[in-house]
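Q: Given only this backbone (102 positions), what sequence would you predict?
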């Protein structure tokens, strides 16, 4: 029997100092590696409301062309164990991404 849905673990994420955060891409075209923060169920990542252009999420070490584009206030659930496994980029300097543990 094929499993179509796997229920998330029953572990609760306890709010801590790293429960939410903001990643800033200071220089467009220069990827920023995510912080060494882990979450058992992944992260919700959102383009910051003040962004004027697109921000990008991609696997660490990959090009922006293999990434996922987010506009301001657009979000995605990324099922990775640690933000360190992702890189972030932007189309203009100073754009931000917000994250919260899922």
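A: Predicted residues:
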């Amino acid at each position: 029997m094929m499993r179509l849905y796997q229920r998330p673990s029953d572990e609760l994420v306890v709010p801590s100092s790293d429960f939410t955060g903001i990643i800033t891409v200071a220089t467009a075209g220069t990827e920023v590696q995510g912080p060494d923060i882990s979450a058992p169920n992944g992260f919700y990542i959102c383009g910051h409301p003040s962004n004027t252009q697109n921000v990008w999420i991609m696997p660490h070490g990959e090009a922006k062309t293999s990434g996922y584009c987010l506009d301001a206030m657009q979000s995605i659930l990324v099922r990775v164990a640690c933000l360190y496994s992702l890189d972030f980029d932007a189309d203009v300097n100073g754009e931000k991404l917000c994250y919260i543990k899922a």
